[in-house]
Amino acid sequence: MSSVLYSLAISVIATLLSISIGVMIVRRVLVNPHVAKAITRLNISFYYPHFVVALYVYLLFSFIYPYIGDYHKIYGTFEILLTYLLKEIPFVIFYLMVTYRKIERAEVDVVRLSGGGTWRLFTTVEFPKIAPQLAELAVILVSFIWTAYEIPSLVGNSFPAFLGVVFYQGYYATDISVQVTTMFWMLVTSLFFYY
Asked: What residue stretches are annotated with the ABC transmembrane type-1 domain (predicted)?
């Protein structure tokens, strides 16, 4: 049960941070057209798999650990969060960029002329258009991160273990009853995301 809650908490935190930072970057890019060309450089992040980014983060922190003392549980959690943020923020940016480019300039001008600031612009014009995409992103990211294996096994803690790591260990266990139980819980998790 602790691994389920730990995995869910990490996946929700990583999803919320990725979506909020991604929305802020997209809004900043569209306000400043000079930065719009630089956003295409984020395509590079799609060439690196998740485990390669996790190895980069692990190597970065392996040099830091001798200076900050012994390894602590929070470091594995922080490494997992940092890896997912590095991979999912560009995904969020490219997912939202098309919708933000389709927002009519006239709608933005109406809000600006009526005295609305950036918050009013976001709540009345932008958010109604991106809300369905934000919901899709939340479901995609939470379901992917919650059951992922490679990043938590590379940089995560041994206890509480991430749900994907527990599933992997149970699926390849030598005891048949453990394998069947693991397959059952994998099915329950899949049905949870389906409905």
From this structure: 1-195
